[in-house]
Automatic annotation (TrEMBL):
The lineage of its organism: Bacteria, Candidatus Portnoyibacteriota. CDD domains: AHBA_syn. The active site is at K184 (proton acceptor). Keywords: Pyridoxal phosphate. GO terms for molecular function: pyridoxal phosphate binding; transaminase activity. This is Transcriptional regulator.
Amino acid sequence: MEFINLKIQDQNIQQKILKNIQKVINSGQFILGQEVAQFEKNIAQCLNVKYAIGVASGTDALFLSLVALGIKQGDEVITTPFSFIATANTISRVGATPVFADINPANFNIDPEQIKTKITKKTKAIIPVHLFGQMADMDAIMALAKKHNLAVIEDACQAIGACSKTKKAGTIGSYGCFSFFPTKNLGAYGDAGLVVTNQKDIAEKIKVLRAHGAKKQYHHQILGFNSRLDEIQAAVLNVKLKYLDQWNEQRISHARYFTEHLQDIKQLIVPPAISDLSHIFHQYTIRAQKRNQLKKFLEKNKIPTMVYYPVPLHLQPMFKCLNYQRNDFPQTEKASREVSSLPIYPGLAQKDQDFIIKKIKEFYDSR
Ligand SMILES: Cc1ncc(COP(=O)(O)O)c(C=O)c1O
């Protein structure tokens, strides 16, 4: 068994993808051609957002959003300490200071009550992350942002297609940032990313920033970067996008099955079963007593699991300069010690899920 098996996901559509890639090769247009334009149109429609701008990665989507906001040295940006490093290192990359706020233990996402305690005169923006595919409390975060006049950059890298009430992840704040890293719910065949927004001026700015600061070729108005989504990745994504909803539904259905069969194990806390799209299960993450022993036991039985994330951001050596200490964010640190993500990819066989369930039960029965 693999933690994620992309071959299963691709097997029925690979010919279509190869055909689309061949089309790009035949066209000789590899940068900002028809496929990128088509993908930007397709995904904007799918997310119900006005503008979508393809960029080189999810990391660059966050970075360019921060640059576009003019965030710089001396500014503070509040975010979660329980995320992938790119959420916070992009803040440092523009010279600003990441300020962490602890998570809500119920959903692993930044806690709006904790954000409140971190707002200062220097705060310019909030970056909530929809971790593991589950939407953060955007109503409360947007209310805080409005009250304090802060920008909101949604890190929706793990949550494409998640939807709270009527709005999709990434379309609620000023900017929504997505990653198409191959293992994401919508994955390219390499690095790729996207910024979405409903504001025309913001969209124009990101377009200029991704292309060396030029609106017109060879006329550079501002300091820009080389961060374009390339045609071959867009050709892959244009095919795969059509399957996103069905893949997300499969993940939700796998999650429901796990929850149904694991919820009675008293040494575990499982994600509650959901009936809507507010969690599209990029990861199915449980809290487990004796987590490390369980991981070893499952490994012995050829069941791979992952720990996202073993070291919270405030305790990463690269952020030593921020002077955070152990116990600064007790909920995040507790989560780091307890979390374990199980295989959940579309195409995961029920017999594999049954085997995982059986072995987890066996582990706790014997202790
Ligand atoms: C929460 C989060 N933020 C940012 C990123 C960065 O995206 P990328 O790997 O495309 O640069 C990722 C994915 O790796 C992520 O999971």
